[in-house]
Automatic annotation (TrEMBL):
<keyword id="KW-0547">Nucleotide-binding</keyword>
<dbReference type="InterPro" id="IPR003439">
    <property type="entry name" value="ABC_transporter-like_ATP-bd"/>
</dbReference>
<keyword id="KW-0472">Membrane</keyword>
<dbReference type="InterPro" id="IPR027417">
    <property type="entry name" value="P-loop_NTPase"/>
</dbReference>
<feature type="transmembrane region" description="Helical">
    <location>
        <begin position="154"/>
        <end position="171"/>
    </location>
</feature>
<dbReference type="GO" id="GO:0005524">
    <property type="term" value="F:ATP binding"/>
</dbReference>
<keyword id="KW-0067">ATP-binding</keyword>
<dbReference type="Pfam" id="PF00005">
    <property type="entry name" value="ABC_tran"/>
</dbReference>
<dbReference type="InterPro" id="IPR011527">
    <property type="entry name" value="ABC1_TM_dom"/>
</dbReference>
<dbReference type="InterPro" id="IPR036640">
    <property type="entry name" value="ABC1_TM_sf"/>
</dbReference>
<dbReference type="InterPro" id="IPR003593">
    <property type="entry name" value="AAA+_ATPase"/>
</dbReference>
<feature type="transmembrane region" description="Helical">
    <location>
        <begin position="253"/>
        <end position="278"/>
    </location>
</feature>
<dbReference type="Pfam" id="PF00664">
    <property type="entry name" value="ABC_membrane"/>
</dbReference>
<feature type="transmembrane region" description="Helical">
    <location>
        <begin position="75"/>
        <end position="93"/>
    </location>
</feature>
<feature type="transmembrane region" description="Helical">
    <location>
        <begin position="34"/>
        <end position="55"/>
    </location>
</feature>
<protein>
    <submittedName>
        <fullName>ABC transporter ATP-binding protein</fullName>
    </submittedName>
</protein>
<feature type="transmembrane region" description="Helical">
    <location>
        <begin position="177"/>
        <end position="194"/>
    </location>
</feature>
Amino acid sequence: MSGASQPSTAFLPIAEPAQMRRAALRLIRLDGRAFTAMIFLNALAAGAGLVGPWLLGRIIDQVKAGAEVGTVDRLALAILLFGLAQLLLARYASYVGHRFGERTLARVREQYTERALALPASVIERAGTGDLTTRGTTDVAAVGATLRDSGPDVLIAGVQALFILGTVFTLDPLLGACGVLGLLGIWFAVRWYLHRALPAYLAEGAANSALAEQLAATTAGARTVEALGLQQRRVEACQEAVERCRRARTRTLFLRSVLFPVVDVSYVIPVAGVLLVGGVLHEHGGMSLGAVIASALYLRQLSQPLDVILQRVEQLQSSGASFARIEGLGLAPQAGPAASPLIPRDDRLDVSNVCYAYDGADDVLRDVDLTVRPGERLAIVGPSGAGKTTLGRLLAGIDTPRTGSVTVGGVPVAGLDPDQLRQRIVLVTQEHHVFLGTIRDNVQIAAPSAADAELCAALAAVGADWIDDLPDGLDTELGQGGYRPDGAQAQQLALARVVLADPHTLILDEATALLDPGTARHTERALAAVLSGRTVVAIAHRLQTAHDADRVAVMQDGRITELGSHDDLVTADRAYAALWRSWHGEPPAATSR
Ligand code: ADP
């Protein structure tokens, strides 16, 4: 694929916050009962946790009032029981939470796979498989970690914090206000930090990568560095990278060194405030000593859920970004217009007045007109970058033309239902994939019900006789730990799949380029025999292919400049004839065999 200038990242869209919220709500609704149970159990656990400090306050008041030891014992026992209840409820809540997280993660994964499989090939090619893979691995893992741990933890902590604050407000609104004051400090500190943390950590990551890159490049090229006397320059470059790292790390250290002390102080302020205000209230008889102590203990308790939230907030932020990328997949452009209900009347391909440009760049196909008759063998030749591959992709319905039309039997090719399209037209390029499994698995993909005899016939048709030498034949395992086919053999497996798929029209984009010239010619002839009566459009890198074809189209600079049979074009004595003569003049390997 010749698309070096194409940016390969950030092509797949990213979901907006509103779309993420909707997606998250939908996921919650899908497992609404578990989610409600998780919240309910957490609320119960938090409620049980609140009883302890209140009972402690009661003990103080009772002791002050001269209560008996038995009363204090009973209250102390109650503290123990409620503590135990809180522990058990919290454990059960987290069990329910984790199950909810796992099920939701499974849904996210399934949805990702469905969406990734539904993406049109052209979208994946342009976005680069790297982006898609990262979303399916790193991003899904980040969301998974949140669903499993951080999400439930933060939810539990949030419920606890709300309950604690609510209780202090109930005891005395003024004391509740002291708690909120402390929280405000944390709120502002965290906002300040988060605002700066993401760019700072990104810069630190980039500086680390740059340093690693410099060191690796210097060591890998040590001999060249020495031979050219570049030591000083390399040392300077590495020092500069180290300095960038130092600056980036100092910055993140500074951010942490502001956040944590502010948070620590913010935990103490409400407790101190409650003791002060509560003391005054108690002095004036507005509040019992027990209530003051209970409030102070509650606010002290508040630091625990807040700590959890603070620790997880960064992870939540980064997994939020991952979720936006996963959800973004659903916003990717879909496979062109809705599948056409029309059935092609025959297999004639018509390219009419077609212009095509990649992503708003200049046209790489200009005013192309071409008709390929059913059963015809057409070779397309021309210099690299002339637009041959692009034309092949339009003929195979992978891309749609910017202007004009590409039709099969009168119906736009790209509008055909994918299954219909693949029965009619198959594009074979140099990119072949060998799937894990046996040779039989690899070839049978094209025709799941094909018997061994058919598989062998297809493999023989493409000249894959190396299979006869394998002791396990069709049952030979391919891939790691098994037999590793080389490029040419992988290509033959792909071609055997095509023979089995038996499409009406075959577009070969340098499909035999990896084979040695002799095998390539043999394979092409064998294929032609198998596919006799089929239409074959071959983008040819060997003029022999053009010689054997019914007609040859010569492409130059996005246009078809010559079109006719080999003999006609040689007689016309233009570019093709010159090419043929210069090629034929030499003793090429392909013709000598
Ligand atoms: P050929 O097959 O004749 O070598 P191509 O069809 O591959 O020619 O390319 C035609 C032109 O389109 C070239 O200028 C190439 O750089 C450009 N091109 C090909 N693929 C892409 C792509 N994915 N994105 C942007 N430009 C591309």
